[in-house]
Design brief:
Structural class: alpha+beta
Strand order of the largest sheet: 1-3-2-9-5-7-6-4
Largest sheet: 8 strands, antiparallel, barrel
Radius of gyration: 17 Å
Number of helices: 5
């Protein structure tokens, strides 16, 4: 079952995190989910050095299709937010915003497409690719090499982006027992995988592992 995702990746200073996360999770997410066509949401924190001054977060809003995020568009929403929203948005740094359409999904444990477009895993891995006109090569590698790794038991989702600087997004939902691979793009150790790793535009370091902060883990 395919769907669409509005993805926002941003940095947040740790000193601002408590107030911002309270607002985002308790106020902002419910406001978004009240809009027609919004079907689910999730909020993740990228695992990083606990001593760093800031942390990276990934916000995900699911929709029935990408039309939902174009009426109104993010740019049309932005000009007139209430004061609290304006103040909280100013806390973000290095934001990346992507509107994504799910191209395909694969549940490694079931050996079949995922039965839902909702992202629910407590841990995910994320990669953004600029294939530099090698889109066919990237797509073939994903299906013929990446998915063939028997250790990849969770759901892998491939998205196409209609906004932002990258075209391809890969998100893998780790199962509770699944260990993340040493490198997110690691399939078989071969020349093909090495070429594809050169298309990676985010993250700068591997792997990009994130834990869910909303909804809170059971």
């Amino acid at each position: 079952m395919a769907g669409a995702v509005w993805m926002i990746i941003y940095d947040l200073e740790r000193t601002q995190a408590d107030e911002y996360l309270r607002w985002f999770d308790e106020v902002h997410i419910p406001e978004k989910l009240a809009r027609p066509g919004y079907t689910w949401a999730a909020h993740y924190q990228v695992t990083a050095d606990d001593n760093a001054a800031d942390s990276t977060y990934v916000a995900l809003f699911g929709g029935t299709d990408s039309r939902v995020f174009s009426n109104p568009s993010p740019a049309q929403i932005k000009p007139s937010p209430p004061p609290e929203t304006r103040r909280m948005m100013a806390c973000r740094a290095n934001s990346k915003m992507l509107i994504l359409a799910e191209e395909w999904s694969w549940d490694g444990a079931a050996g079949a497409p995922a039965n839902s477009s909702n992202i629910v895993a407590e841990r995910v891995q994320l990669a953004l690719f600029d294939a530099n006109d090698n889109d066919e090569n990237l797509g073939a590698w994903l299906v013929q090499d990446y998915l063939e790794n028997p250790a990849r038991a969770g759901v892998t989702r491939k998205y196409l982006s209609s906004t932002g600087a990258v075209r391809h997004v890969l998100l893998h939902e780790l199962t509770p027992a699944e260990d993340p691979p040493d490198a997110f793009v690691a399939g078989a150790a071969n020349d093909w995988s090495a070429r594809v790793s050169g298309y990676l535009s985010y993250p700068a370091g591997l792997p990009c592992l994130a834990r869910r902060v909303w909804p809170a883990a059971d």
